């Protein structure tokens, strides 16, 4: 697996882990700051932590010189694309009630995971076994 592919997988898992843990650590403050219901913030945190566990295992496999299965990479790309759509839906649904910070952060997360989906489709998926 190429260095670029390994880096993308590590970035994907690491970013989701950092965001998920930060969301859990700030769970008592984030709903106020973002203008989101506490349940929505918790859902985002848990989804990010769960995703980090999945994508992190693919990154570890790649770092150990074992290319992840093609299906596993395809699921990863689909999950990123789906999460980008979820972020867009949250911005649309919560836009009028959310703070500017909430809209900005969820929009940035959506753009980030959409970019990851595109890059992983192009540079990681072809290397799957």
Defining key terms:
0% strand; 129 residues
SSE inventory with pairings:
Blueprint: H1 3-25, H2 30-34, H3 38-63, H4 70-94, H5 100-123
Helix pairs in contact: 1-3, 1-5, 3-4, 4-5
Description:
- The chain has one domain (3-124).
- The radius of gyration is 15 Å and the shape is elongated.
- The protein contains 5 helices and no strands.
- The protein has helices at 3-25, 30-34, 38-63, 70-94, 100-123.
- By secondary structure, it is an all-alpha fold.
Shape: elongated
Tally of separate helices = 5
Number of domains: 1
Strand content: under 5%
Euclidean distance between termini CA atoms: 10 Å
**Average pLDDT score:** 96
How many E-type strands?
A: 0
What portion of residues is helical? Answer: over 70%
Structural class: mainly alpha
Low-confidence stretches: none
Largest sheet: none
Series of secondary-structure elements, N-terminal to C-terminal: HHHHH
Radius of gyration from the CA trace? 15 Å
């Amino acid at each position: 697996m190429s260095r670029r592919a390994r880096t993308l997988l590590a970035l994907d898992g690491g970013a989701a882990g950092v965001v998920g843990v930060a969301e859990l650590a700030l769970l008592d403050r984030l709903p106020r700051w973002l203008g989101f219901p506490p349940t929505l913030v918790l859902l985002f945190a848990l989804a990010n932590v769960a995703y980090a566990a999945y994508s992190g295992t693919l990154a570890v496999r790649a770092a150990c010189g074992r290319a992840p299965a093609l299906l596993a990479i395809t699921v990863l790309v689909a999950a990123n694309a789906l999460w980008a759509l979820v972020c867009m839906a949250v911005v649309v649904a919560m836009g009028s009630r959310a703070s500017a910070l909430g809209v900005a952060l969820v929009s940035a997360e959506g753009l980030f995971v959409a970019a990851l989906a595109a890059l992983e489709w192009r540079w990681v998926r072809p290397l799957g076994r």
